[in-house]
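Consider this one:
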Amino acid sequence: MSLSPVKQEILENMLLIDKPVKAAEIAQSVQKDLPQVRGHLLGLTKNGYINLPEKGQYAITEKGKQALGLPVITKEKAEAILSYSPHDKAFNFYADVGKPLNLHAHNIRDFAKKIEKAEVVSVEFHTKRGDFEAWFKTLGDEELAMKVALLKKKNVSGEELRKQLAQVAMQRYVALSKLAGQPAYTD
């Protein structure tokens, strides 16, 4: 089944939210009428792209992620994504071109922690350039790269952008850790 633009937008928003949500919250996030969204949710559920893990709450499934073009992540792939990147492959934060902040992230967990320390101007600089997306792709994490692209598409900026990037990265780290069978350290 090819996705209509509205179904695509619903799945993208559910990917970004990354937890079970009510239809009303989905309608608000895609800025569509609730009855219209409910109809799309019914179709997406019927096709296995979303499920109802709790009564009245919807969540994107692995099949839904695949419909967005994301690959299936195996335990081995999760371990590889979570691994420590050497300094020459770490993410280096800059305030602008030629203005390094001497702040480096070596994996997704490290990124989630360091982005909280980076200047907002740096966060916006790298988001506009697509640097975060590119680095996550080099780690092998297409899903996290897509989530960052979706935040950029929503025109989130400033402190809210920093907060959401940290949250999305930490959620992804926890999910990958669980898949890899590793403990997740969120402190």
